[in-house]
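Intended use. Records such as the SDR family oxidoreductase entry shown here are meant for training and evaluating sequence-to-structure methods. They are not intended to support clinical decisions.
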Amino acid sequence: MVHSNAGSLNGRVAVVTGAGSGMGLATVKAFLEQGAYVYALDISQDNLERELGSEDNVTVIALDISDSAAVNEAFDKVRENHGKLHALVNAAGVSVPTRRAVEWVDDINHRMVEAMKKGEPFAPEFLSEIPDEDFDRVMKINLYGTFYTTRAAVPLLKAAGGGAITNFASIAGLVSLPMPAYYPASKAAVVGMTRSNAGELAPFNIRVNALAPAGINTAMMNQSGDDHVQALLSLQPLKRLAEPEEVAQTLVFLSSDAGAHYTGQVFSPSGGAYLT
């Protein structure tokens, strides 16, 4: 039986990574509105303090999500203060690892869009130009970071009698898109880990799902330039970027009792670009 307040998070304890901006920040605010206590994790102390420093029922923790020791310390604080956890949202991620890589991808996207406008063929080449350290960095943040937080969260979720984990994948991990391989590789791996963990943790009433967004109006999306945005929108029946607050409402649903029968699923807020 689902009660009328099934979508509420009142009294729940949550951890949200990537909480200083974008969809992570929108999720923190949505969780607070629903009565949760939130541990907000992000690499930027300045962003956390500026956006959430004056909020009640929030503990901000600045860390690099790819540092397993720092992640364990953050969850030790959750254990010391609350002894349990009801929801984990893994929103931290990066599409390109450096400013140099951003400029490189922007240039290719610009030339690709210009060729599309002229009806000319264009075959971008990424593989030969990706250095080891760029591939490693993206995988460490997007995949390893999600693994580190999940591993640290599970004992606390079990202590609560169950809960929900929602991981951020991407449409890039589900379909063929011309871009540096490190990003779709990391996000496809997140999908695989989500499904594996969903099967392992179901007996403990812990649900594990993933979101695979396309174009969302975030700083990470906009740093890629208008050409990249327009190329993505060309794939979508809905010709607009989604707002982070829209995605956050899906996180509320999946993290609450309203989403109690969903696990191992990949939800794609993609404006119709990905259909299953």
